[in-house]
Amino acid sequence: MRTSRSDGAAGAEGRAALGRRARRIADVLAKEYPDAGCALDHRGPFELLVATILAAQCTDERVNQVTPALFARFPDATSLAAADPAELESLVRSTGFFRAKARSLRGAAETLASRFADGFPSRMDDLLTLPGVGRKTANVVLGTCFGQPAIIVDTHVRRVSQRLGLASTDDPDEIERQLQDLLPADGWTDFSHRLTFHGRRRCHARKPDCGQCVVAGLCPSHVV
Ligand code: SF4
What we know:
Blueprint: H1 7-10, H2 15-32, H3 45-54, H4 60-73, H5 77-81, H6 85-92, H7 98-115, H8 124-127, H9 135-145, H10 155-163, H11 172-182, H12 188-201
Helix pairs in contact: 3-4, 3-9, 6-7, 10-12
The site of iron/sulfur cluster has 15 residues, from helix 10.
């Protein structure tokens, strides 16, 4: 039953109060980060999919340094599917885990070129059939390129949503469901981008800057 999803996050606070607090947090973050969005440079869903696969365990800035040469050499799924593995590994080496990422890129490109030659897939179920693509990557593409409501649970959203008491689990799929339950769908994508910005700017992993945090008054983890 859908109402049970965020019961764990609600706890003693209660579901209705948690929902109100979540919406207030979303409003404050919207004012603080009005332009928050996808930080990966891309022109269309193919490039964003590739960039998001490369962004695993890597900064967006590093990925943005790598992708211009990558897309110049392999501008579409067909060319990427036929890439020489050694050349591809060399191009993405600096993003880390380059062998696994190169394998995922080729596998995803092969599937795109063979099964989705008529158009880039815009359904979650289809995107999840691509090698190396999980819900986070699929949500990035769906939310950014297709305007579909998407909660994107990256490392920042995972950490900040738990500190804010909006999620009660470390499991990304469950965090996605819990956040979906708290906010209207038309705000999902922007809200997750703003949580990511907040994680980068203020709610750092090691030492959150609670003294300068705009949602400190709404956060149960606020450290004085
Ligand atoms: S008050 Fe501190 S822990 Fe809570 S969201 Fe802000 S920076 Fe993070």
